[in-house]
Amino acid sequence: MVIKTEPFVLNIGPVHPSTHGVFRMRTTLDGEVIVELEPVFGYLHRGIEKLAEERTYTGVIPLTDRLDYLASMSNNLAYVLAVEKLAGISVPERAQYIRVLLAELQRIASHLIAIGAFLNDCGAYFTPFLYMFREREKIVDLLEMVSGQRLLYNYMRVGGFAQDIPDEFLPALAKFVNQMPRFINEYDRLLAENEILLVRAKGVGILPKELAINIGASGPVLRASGVKWDIRKVDPYSIYDRFDFEIPTGSAGDCYDRYRVRVEEMRQSLRIIKQAMGQIPSGAVRSEVPHLIRPPAGEAYAHIEAPKGELGFYLVSDNSIAPYRCHIRAPSLINLTALREMIVGWKIQDAIIIFGSIDITMGEVDR
Amino acid sequence: MVANPGLSLQHYWQTLPPNWPGGFWWHWLVFTVIIIVFVLALVMGYIWIERRGMGRIQARLGPNRTGPFGLLQPVADAIKVLLKEDIIPARGDKIVYWLAPVVAFAPALMVFAVVPFQDGALLADLNVGILYVVAVSSVTTVGVFMAGWGSNNKYSLLGAMRMVAAVVSYEIPLVLAIAGVVLVVGSLSLNDIVLAQSIPFILLQPLGFIIFFIGGCAEINRSPFDLMEADSELVAGFHTEYSGMKFAMFYLAEYAEALAMSAIIATLFLSGWKGPVLPPWLWFVIKVLVVFFVMVWTRATFPRVRIDQLMALAWKFLLPLALLNLFITAIEVLTWPTALPWVMVPVNIAIMVVLVLLWSRLSKLGWGRVEV
Q: What HEC string does A31-51 produce?
């Protein structure tokens, strides 16, 4: 006897433990296999781009915190770079170095969460997640030291910083930089060769090189597919051209490569921090900037290598105190566009880890 | 014996442990109470160990507010869960939905009828003891599938389907691993199996132990085989829709099953209640807790396997290995029936290492992508 079967629709999300926010995947399942998938965005839309038009240039900075809330410093950096480009403001040396330090710290913090959440999606019951959070906690403490905040820092300003870093910051940072490689190695020893992780993640959710380039993917997702593309190298912003670091790339473009690339990037970030710490000059941390910035009419686009990919701010000025238009190129959203191609044909369990390995923040996807 | 109504009470009396005083009903009453108290107390202990132990493994404290060392946390959980609203899905199958938690929980208790707490201290020394355990413990699956079906929820149904698939597959290597032990002992009664263990069978049947432990973890859906309630995919799997006391029953059943499985493992492979100095029942409890701690350890350490990998593990790895184990054990029992156990220990461990290493290189787990 043959029992007739038919595919059925399963809504994964918007309320689901593994959608990293309010994302919805409308999947059609044939048994356990996903035969069709339609991503649905927009549940967290807050109109940040429109809100930015109502605020002064400085007032937009707290809004940028709320994009990728796991990497607020990077968002701050991308935005202030755009405004500085628009208004032609220069930044003191010391501030440049501190920006690099904070952005790289933020990259490590964001990657730690990405790896922890990815392994949680694989079903490792919170242990890697909490270990990663233990390390992230140290970074959050450091960032709290400079900004007074633990999640939404709102620390960078156009032309520099709100205030100088406290004296105890650099010694604490040195201690962290010395400790961290040991923890990264330990996690590698525990996770990298884990048999279950290998069979779950290797060869799963392959994003081919051509497709990755065509959809405009960036960050670890693009590099895992074997493209050596990092804004810090190809279009150096701030002072990244002064540091010596590698761009780790994967080869297969599968979930495992995306995980490995992130681990290697943490090591490279530590390298950059070490170099920057040695060279940091004294002096002012903020150039003379008027309270209400009125950039000349025109437009500017600044992009940085945020933890999740190319984060860009496109600003249009009409010589008023608020941006005429503020467009945000969010890496999470653009990396997600190949989700269907990556997931269809895999099982529902794979869909979860493929989605987790892209590492998105819904605050950035929906803005 | 239970199934045969023709047997008289007098006949039953003869199957009772000889050194146990009192008549049939006294015996029945005392042991039913002992089993219920034992299961409920140890399940609470399990919940505590799981939460505190995982807390330590995960570099955090775990619950420590209720009572000394958070010992009363299971009590607090139970009270909380009792006070919750009892929700029945409007379009669910109400009778099935109602019955499912009971069907899932009862077998876990029934298993203990044949588990010896010390020499002869058991409810019924069935001559088919281990067969009874295998038969009764698989009834839980029916309860889980009833829950998955009755909830009218896609996540629940997927979880229940996975559970059925897993249990049907893992039952076979599990029983074959038990058969190895039974061959050595020559009896199906759990009391006889314990008495026969002059050295723990984990040493004499190492391969069988590994197969049984992995199969047991899959059977009771402990990590890394916890696909039926995979929290990262299926929200809560088959009990997604359950709340209140019905959820508590499933929670209880989950741990009671884990307790039953660790009691069986302790009895079959760790020489049950045997041990020096301490009283036998205490040895039994200690061994059960040690087995459970290993389960907690694996849960806190390993990622979850995929459903096709779960099946592949059962059919491609455990089943052939279990057959080989049975075959080798049979040869050993036939050829050297009088060999000292200590002589066989290194031989069997060597065989296990070779087989496991060979087999893990021979074939591949899972199938990967499906063209659609």
A: CCEEEEEEEECCCCCCCHHHH
